[in-house]
Amino acid sequence: MVIHGGAGTLVKGLMTPEKEEEYKAALNEALEKGYAILENGGSAMDAVETAVNNLEDSPLFNAGKGSVFTNDGTHEMDAAIMDGKTRDAGAVSLITGIKNPISLARDVMDKTDHVFLAGEGAMRFAKSLDYTLETPEYFYDEHRYQQWQNIKDSDKFELDHSMKKEGKFGTVGAVACDKSGNIAAATSTGGMTNKRWGRVGDSPMIGVGNYANNKTCAVSCTGSGEFFIRGVVAYDVSCLMEYKGMTLVEAASEVINKRVLEIGGDGGLIAVDAKGNIAMPFNTEGMYRAFKTSEEKKEIGIYKD
Length: 305
What we know:
34% helix
């Protein structure tokens, strides 16, 4: 199992040791809760949903409770989940008031004939399932609010990882391989600070910010969404494995350390294949990440080694 909490300008020494420990503790909790499902014979789908739920519930990350403010002072969240065994998928975008967007994405997959619901329609779907809508106060965070105040009267928007600051970082995600050799991926985000006009990033797009196929890999991305969309990043990793015969590590590295950079993007991804191999490349100073394997290997990291 592998999870991430965003990639970007995570410069060593910028954060206090206490804040670093806070992030590592949050990553560890999400990792252990997801892994426990795999250890008990549960599915990769349940594991990635559980891990992402946990990250969404933390104010430290830009997803769920910690989502950034839009230009209108609201929170618009996106999420996607995909089953590598069946290639069934579910995604939601431009939703508000939903505590755990990844669970709504799972419901789109399990309870409709559709893959992607957005905006008002996605909200109507949530209400039909009796989702509790949280008040704006639930999503309020003073640091996020100040982040928005700094640029809200300008035409700027800000990737959460684009400034050197002691603060919260981006998109969250999880990938997993279960005892049956099935893999799954889940990704959730609050998007960009001060985003306008219903902007949608890569996270909820199947094949872009999230993808899973038992034949190749499960991928969850984080970074400069517009560039990841242009690069069709998650599916690109899968394609390099399927059509060029690359290993998971080779394909993931090719995409993040070459292809994304060539078009001006930055960020990272986490990936796993059906044999339990993992990859966690990123071309930024750091990426919140953690993994655990059945061979008792475990790592929680923030910066480049």
